[in-house]
Amino acid sequence: MSLLRRPLLHLRRRISSISAVAAxxxxxxxxxxxxxxxxEPASSDGSLFHVAVDVSAYPDLASSHTRPGQYxxxxxxxxxxxxxxxxxxxxxSLSASDGVFEFLVKSVPGSAAEVVCRMRRGDxxxxxxxxxSGFEVGRISPPEVARTVLIFATGSGISPIRAxxxxxxxxxxxxxxxxxxxxxxLQRMAYQERFKAWESSGVRILPVLxxxxxxxxxxxxxxQSAFARAKQIVDPLSTGAVLCGYRxxxxxxxxxxxxxxxxxxxxxxxx
Length: 271
Fold this sequence. Notes:
Blueprint: H1 5-28, E1 32-41, E2 48-54, H2 59-63, E3 71-75, E4 84-87, H3 92-98, E5 100-106, H4 112-117, E6 124-127, E7 148-154, H5 158-167, E8 176-183, H6 195-200, E9 204-209, E10 219-220, H7 223-230, E11 239-244, H8 247-259, E12 267-268
Parallel strand pairs: 7-8, 7-11, 8-9, 9-10, 11-12
Antiparallel strand pairs: 1-2, 1-6, 2-5, 3-4, 3-6
């Protein structure tokens, strides 16, 4: 090969590589327009909303939701500000059977999420492809691998936890499954109407309120502090955990669990 052709070949390979990256970027930015089928308050203070999107016309998109904890981006068209990342709150079985994605959306002032929460049923939004590997439940399965499963969620971080619980992970076959669910107060706590069904599936619900009223007799403070006071880990080697919420909470809880002998491999996150 001549000295002249070598730089040319290198340049062609470089252009080809750049083109491949650009093409991948374009694929990642593919948006699908789909109608809203549900918009209603999820908390009595109006800070959280139940939102559902009908993607039944796009079976490939619906079927790409395969594991609790996966997420996507959503925005109102034409694009308003930066899109919002939302964990899918409904179990994959609902995507497969009805072609519906359900979300728990926090209405943040000035964000695309706030705009979506002000829309109406039948309005169209744009959604990206499903992202992430979700919760790797296989790391705490079968039940004998993790007889105890400790679940921690704060704020809207409860949405992928709902997907996990309602997908089923053999909670009723384990000896101890606890959900520490943190919120400012009961007025900001979503899914209270689902607690009874969750508990019947084998999950003990432990609400933790950081700013409760004087009538509250349950756990108070932050989730990590409430757990640090209780712990009650009988066998760290047979304990798993699932975390979703504020970064400080997940970091602090992880530190507590690891210090008590829980394997990092059995501590699951969806990001």
